[in-house]
Design goal:
The chain is mainly alpha-helical. The protein is built from 41 helices and eight strands. Helices cover 57% and strands 5% of the residues. Helix 20 runs antiparallel to helix 21 and helix 25 runs antiparallel to helix 27.
């Protein structure tokens, strides 16, 4: 995939914004112009301004670029001095004489090139006199060619630069001059610049926003692992500087499983230390120290916490947090007096950049802060970094934390549950919770190993003697569900059914997830199990209480998929709004419901199916639920194929195959590879032969399966649809091609377009050349089936 060197915007990236700037440059030929270029940190403002400067120089404009002092100090008009001092030093003596002695004396107070050495305070400078003199300098430098003046980090400049800008707006230079102020989009300094206005609209504001996904993906280097690539795009959120920082470092050492978005906000960071790719030179030493302390404390944090962690005085911490806020790195939290990083990935990178000893010391100081001491959960990240066995109180805290975060941060929940289970005599709940987290984050094979070690009666699916009485029947029923889920993910469906059937009907009714898992298992088992899937889905709907919206919507989605598998479309309309209303956190326990909803509408509404699969994929990635990524990617591949988007279909199929390999779900991986082969070698790649066939993607896929001589029942099993649905598609194919038999369909597909008989003409009964394009064994439906 095309990418820029070191994050340099590639062809077309920021092309629209650059075109707007070039338009202002052209307008400045007739009358001087003024532009504000704003945006959050690392969004690419400086790079875009440099591209403008190169384009202006290519047009033979005079270019003067400067920036405010990065440490917040320096002489008055530092940005202007940085931009214009060299120009004045090399200026024609005649031009300086035209400025006049009075202006030169004023300029000499500020510009070293004119022999002045300023030793007073900024209050000693006559700002208005300097502004008038600088305007005259701009007119001289512009001449007939034009002058581009770029002042970077203008939000950090003193008030005198804002007053100079206001002066230029009131009295524009009588020459082709374009002034561009580059500044942050928030903070006190940005507020002063944002207030610049002119009744004639002379100020053009161009805000830089994060890049859309396609443009962000174009900046990533080739060769990234598919999952790592998706995580970078998610965590960087379209900010080019973060894209560069996340892609420059080594892939995170997470055992191949995705990390949750919420894991970036606090505690040990899953990201590799590549913070050097972030430009932090604009921060003062005090702000950098406070940023590291805030990163150790985690989101959200208070000024007092930063003061304890750094350590700094409260006054120093206030100044530092104000600077971080002005720079757009942190912002206010919903609670008064609390702050958080605007980009969690920036916090994670800052925290990981510190050494292990510094992180531990900072964490211990943060825990001693009054505000942190009120939150018992704040101690969990520190407990995860220690190696000593936890005490009983610490183990209880870790288990509680794992239980509340198992669906939203499964990788970290697994670590917490493992630490809790290390306590001698720990109850079974901790390791059962760990096994659940292992399944959720995408390590089902390791979960089954743990189940077999702790729960040796694998086939019976019953807990050890007395364990259910000590822990609770519902806990063991739920554990059975997750053990069956692990088996289903690995393609061991028969064994998963035996495990689930070992649970009594009463226990399954008491745990709605048990009926839902049985319905999902039957749906994936192909014909004739789908007839039983409808009954299981109906029981899941009855078992799920109306008050539990997540469980109820999940059951409805399964019911809709079960109906669709039998050629009907029911219940999908009710499940969709319920799932959408749950929000990200509410939907975390039932993310797979979006998959079943997508399967339910795949045959009738391809656009809606693609949306369902995409929503589910984004949710699974956000929460780090790696066990679902392959299934959603496979659904997306099929939906994109149905809509004719072959490039996206191949990308998703390739991702699905990689994820199934990571899960060691080899049957599902073969299904994804078959789909990828079908996409890459399908009839659409031979337009001279197949272009004239008036079939939809799904109809063409079924027609291709007729060639090898598959029966309707075998096609239904391959496509994971009902026999009735196959018959419906065959009827459409016969009607579109004007044929009366399966042999005639094969005969038509074996001729070039130019030799196609007209619809309605008789076709010979024997095909000249049978179609040989392979179709995926599962048709892109539930992975591993067929």
């Amino acid at each position: 995939m095309p990418h820029g060197q070191g994050g340099e915007p590639g062809q077309g990236v920021r092309a629209h914004e650059l075109a707007l700037l070039m338009e202002e440059l052209d307008h400045a030929r007739a009358a001087s112009g003024f532009v504000r270029l704003s945006g959050e940190p690392w969004v690419g403002k400086t790079r875009l301004a440099l591209r403008l400067a190169r384009a202006a120089a290519h047009r033979e404009w005079t270019v003067a670029c400067g920036r405010a002092a990065r440490d917040g100090t320096g002489r008055p008009f530092h940005a202007l001095v940085d931009a214009l001092d060299d120009q004045l030093a090399s200026a024609d003596p005649a031009a300086l004489e035209r400025l006049g002695p009075a202006r030169l004396r004023v300029l000499a107070q500020v510009f070293p090139a004119l022999g002045g050495t300023f030793t007073g305070s900024p209050r000693d400078v006559d700002v208005h006199a300097v502004a008038r003199a600088v305007r005259a300098v701009l007119e001289e430098l512009a001449g007939r060619r034009g002058l581009l003046l770029v002042l970077d980090d203008a939000h950090r400049a003193g008030r005198e630069v804002a007053e100079f800008a206001e002066h230029l707006l009131r009295r524009p230079p009588d020459a082709p001059v374009l002034t561009v102020l580059v500044h942050r989009g928030s903070g006190q300094g940005a507020g002063r610049l944002a207030s610049l206005a002119h009744p004639d609209g002379a100020v053009r504001h161009i805000p830089l926003r994060p890049l859309p996904r396609a443009a962000a993906a174009a900046l990533l280097p080739a060769g990234l692992a598919p999952l790592h690539r998706e995580l970078i795009l998610r965590d960087a959120a379209g900010v080019p500087g973060l894209l560069r920082a996340l892609s420059d470092g080594e892939p995170p050492d997470t055992g191949g499983v995705p990390h949750s978005s919420l894991e970036l906000a606090c505690g040990p960071s899953p990201l590799a230390p590549s913070v050097q790719a972030l430009d932090l030179g604009a921060l003062s030493p005090l702000a950098r120290r406070a940023a590291a302390a805030a990163a150790a404390a985690g989101d959200p944090f208070t000024v007092e916490t930063v003061a304890h962690t750094a350590p700094l005085s409260v006054a120093e911490a206030l100044r530092a947090v104000d600077e971080l806020h002005s720079e757009g790195i942190v912002g206010p939290d919903r609670r008064a007096g609390w702050f958080r990083f605007r980009r969690p990935a920036a916090r994670a990178l800052l925290h990981q950049a510190a050494g292990a000893a510094q992180r531990r010391a900072a964490r211990e100081r943060a825990l001693a802060a009054p505000a942190m001491g009120e939150d018992t959960g704040a101690a969990v990240p520190a407990l995860l970094e220690t190696t000593a066995p936890p005490t009983a109180a610490e183990a209880d805290l870790l288990e509680k934390y794992a239980r509340t975060t198992v669906f939203t941060q499964p990788a970290r929940a697994e670590r917490a549950a493992r630490r809790a289970a290390e306590r001698p005599g720990a109850p079974p709940g901790a390791w059962l919770l760990r096994c659940q987290a292992l399944v959720l984050c995408g390590r089902p094979a390791q979960a089954l190993t743990e189940y077999a070690r702790r729960w040796p009666r694998q086939e019976a699916g019953r807990p050890p003697a007395g364990a259910a009485e000590r822990t609770g029947t519902a806990v063991w029923t739920e554990a059975t569900v997750w053990r069956a889920r692990a088996l289903r993910l690995l393609g061991a469906r028969a064994q998963a059914r035996r495990v689930l059937r070992a649970v009594s009907a009463e226990d399954r009714a008491a745990v709605p997830a048990a009926q839902a898992e049985l319905a999902a298992l039957l749906l994936e088992s192909g014909q004739p199990a789908r007839a039983a899937a409808l009954g299981a889905a109906r029981r899941a709907v009855r078992c799920a209480p109306q008050s539990d919206v997540a469980a109820h919507s999940h059951a409805l989605a399964l019911l809709a998929a079960a109906h669709a598998a039998r050629g009907a479309a029911e219940a999908a309309g009710e499940a969709g709004p319920l799932l959408s209303g749950l929000g990200r956190e509410g939907a975390a326990p039932v993310v797979e419901a979006w998959r079943w909803l997508g399967e339910a509408v795949a045959d009738g509404d391809g656009r809606r199916a693609r949306r369902c699969f995409q929503l589910g994929f984004d949710l699974a990635l956000h929460h780090g639920q790696g066990h679902l990524l392959g299934s959603f990617a496979l659904g997306l591949a099929r939906a994109c194929l149905d809509s004719g988007d072959l490039t996206a279909a191949a990308t998703h199929a390739r991702f699905a195959a990689t994820e199934f390999d990571r899960l060691t779900a080899y049957d599902s991986s073969v299904a994804a590879q078959d789909l990828l082969e079908f996409i890459e070698e399908g009839p659409w790649h031979h337009p001279e032969k197949y272009f004239g066939i008036p079939l939809s993607t799904r109809e063409r896929e079924i027609a291709m399966l007729i060639g090898p001589g598959l029966t309707n029942k075998q096609i239904a099993a391959r496509m994971n649809i009902s026999i009735k649905t196959v018959e419906t598609y065959l009827g459409r194919i016969f009607k579109k091609l004007g044929v009366k038999s399966r042999a005639q369909v094969v005969f038509l597909l074996s001729f070039p377009v130019s030799e196609f008989p007209a619809p309605g003409e008789e076709c010979g009964p024997t095909p000249r050349r049978p179609a040989t394009v392979r179709s995926p064994s599962s048709g892109g439906h539930p992975p591993g089936s067929g």
